[in-house]
Amino acid sequence: MPLSARLLSLVAVGASVVLASCAGEQPSGSFGTDRAATRGAAASAPGDAWPASPPEGHRWVGDRGVVVAVPDWWTTGDTQCLLPVEDTVYVETGAMTDCAAPVPPETHREVSSVAVVPTDLAHGERLVGDLVPDGDVSGQAVLTGEECGWIAERACRTVVAVPSLGVAFAMYVADAGDVDPAVFRDSLTLLPDGWTTVPLALRGGHTPVWGTEPPTTRDYARLLEERGFAVRVEPAEPPDSRTSSLVASLPEGALLDIQPTPGSPIEDGAEVVLTVMPPLPE
User: Fold this and answer.
1) pLDDT tens for residues 87-126?
2) Where are the annotated segments for Disordered (predicted)?
């Protein structure tokens, strides 16, 4: 895609994300037998085509062979100080980071998010320690429950976990009119053999996003190669008059796009394309 079209698309997406005007307690719902029985309904049976279609208006995202459905207009990795600042999907390791410009605490209550949490780290172990058994998905035990206070005071999240595969998902809903937690809970699905997900983040928990510096972009490319993907780094077309001001501060090799998007289902060994900033004309 020409850089001009790609940048205009990204700007349009960013402009469409509006912070919720007020915070709200997330309804905890119930986790009974009926709900557990419907979980993973999208999972492929042997011989079925994959990827299965996500619920309408949603996309698949996940890690370690497990995916959930999130609204398709959410961003990926939109964090500051490793906490969400837009309606987004991100990796949560429990790591703390020094921030030159800390985000006001209320910001994290004003945006909806799904955190993908590795349960083999201390933060994930603590998270799943408070959950209760709730059936299974494709034969793997599922734990569910609620967690409060991590992203912000009075912010409670719905959590589903597959501890045998080392992953949990924690959803916070800032505006109940935007997101249905039941869709999130019921969508939990194991990927079939031969499928995995595009890595969501580097080892420190940061997700590469538009404008990521070249050294970090190269680190992500190496991670993809280590995971067995075919990596193609593709310079974008030079910017035109509409987009030159948007990228004027970006160095050659800065990240512009990742396809498929981090967290998306992908076949083992398939190609991941990193579009980067081209050299600017003298």
Assistant:
1) 999 999 988 666 776 778 788 889 999 999 999 999 999 9
2) 27-56
The residue range of the domain holding 92 is: 25-193
Both 75 and 206 in a single domain? Answer: no
139 or 177: which carries more pLDDT confidence?
A: 139
State the pLDDT confidence band at 1, using cuts at 50, 70 and 90: very low
Residue 89 shares a structural domain with residue 154:
yes
Query: Which of 149, 169, 193 is at the close of a domain?
Result: 193
Mark whether 50 and 174 lie in a shared domain: yes
Residues 174 and 240 in one domain: no
Q: Are 32 and 26 in contact (CB under 8 A)?
A: no
pLDDT band, very low/low/confident/very high, at 41 (cuts 50, 70, 90): low
